[in-house]
Specification:
This protein is α/β, with parallel strands linked by helices. It has helices at residues 15-35, 42-49, 85-96, 121-124, 148-157, 192-199, 213-218; strands spanning 51-57, 69-74, 102-105, 134-136, 160-162, 166-172, 175-182, 204-207, 223-226, 253-257, 260-264, 282-288. The strands form two sheets. It has a six-stranded mixed beta sheet with strand order 1-12-2-3-4-5. The model has no long low-confidence stretch (mean pLDDT 93).
Length: 292
């Protein structure tokens, strides 16, 4: 990326974004729970179309004394009305069998409120088996119900730790790396000074919204992991997403800017419509190796 790619309108702000958020909240809470008793196609679509993307990266400022690190990136699970717990459980169990060292979940584990998690905690618990733990950062949907701290508490009860403008030092092999998480760009309170004051710039940053990328690069973060965009969720063949959630056109995949890298997952779940087309659900398995 050159750093100059951007949309004319900022999709994180303005009257349109506020209206979209209100409609999403109302439909998710009060309309779909009734309709989906008759028609709920998403769990079947997820089972058929889910895939795992694999990528090997060598960030330029990654610690040189670390052995290769396998990270499983999940995002936008959106537990709640569109998912069945048994479908999610089977999928996550198969992903843990890939033996990642660390599991990163980049926000939006719920659709509209913390109670969405209740039927899915047993399915999500398997993620805590990763040797270096399962880690979470908050997304915009985690704030929809006004109970983001309850989302954090419930995840902690099954061994998944949330990083909200926080970082931790993680031992891996004979060295260590710094893992950080920043609060959501839209509804959270991101605090770079607080994050950086703990262990300096994270080597690996969890940021739900990919538009944190250039700020992360300016702070010297080698690698950022994000979601939020769903890859557009509805996307015609060979065309850009119909709805773009990134001001900087960071829709899906891997990006490089100067000495920093970004990986954006299309995510696992669905919102607004119980359907995806042209932007199928995915997880991303990363192998991070030190630069030569």
């Amino acid at each position: 990326m050159t750093g100059r790619e951007r949309r004319r309108l900022d999709p994180t702000k303005g009257v349109w974004k506020v209206l979209e958020r209100r409609v999403d909240l109302v439909v998710s809470r009060f309309v779909y729970p009734h309709l989906l008793r008759l028609w709920n196609p998403y769990s079947g679509l997820l089972a058929r179309r889910f895939s795992v993307a694999e990528i090997s990266l060598s960030p330029s400022r990654w610690p040189r004394d670390l052995p290769p690190l396998r990270v499983l990136l999940l995002s936008d699970i959106h537990t709640g009305i569109f998912l069945r717990p048994e479908v999610l459980s089977d999928l996550l169990t198969s992903l843990v069998m890939l033996k990642p060292d660390l599991i990163a979940v980049a926000g939006d584990v719920v659709t509209g409120r913390s109670s969405d998690l209740d039927r899915f905690l047993d399915a999500l618990h398997v993620l805590a088996q990763a040797p270096l733990g399962a880690w979470y950062c908050l997304g915009n949907h985690d704030y929809f119900g006004g109970d983001a701290e309850e989302v954090r508490r419930k995840l902690k009860s099954i061994g998944i730790e949330t990083l909200r403008n926080e970082s931790v030092s993680v031992l891996h092999g004979n060295g260590h790396f710094v893992l950080g998480g920043i609060d959501d760009l839209i509804l959270g309170t991101p605090d770079w000074p607080e994050l950086l004051s703990q262990h300096g710039p994270p080597h690996l940053l969890l940021a739900h919204h990919p538009d944190f990328f250039y700020a992360a690069a300016a702070h010297g973060v080698p690698l950022t992991l994000s979601g939020h965009t769903h890859g557009g969720q509805i996307r015609l063949p060979g065309r850009p997403p119909i709805v773009r959630h990134s001001r900087f056109l960071l829709d899906e995949g891997a990006y490089a800017y100067r000495g920093s890298l970004l990986v954006v997952s299309r995510g696992l779940g669905s919102v607004g419509l119980p359907w995806r087309y042209g932007a199928d659900p995915e997880a991303v398995l990363l192998e991070i190796v030190p630069p030569r």
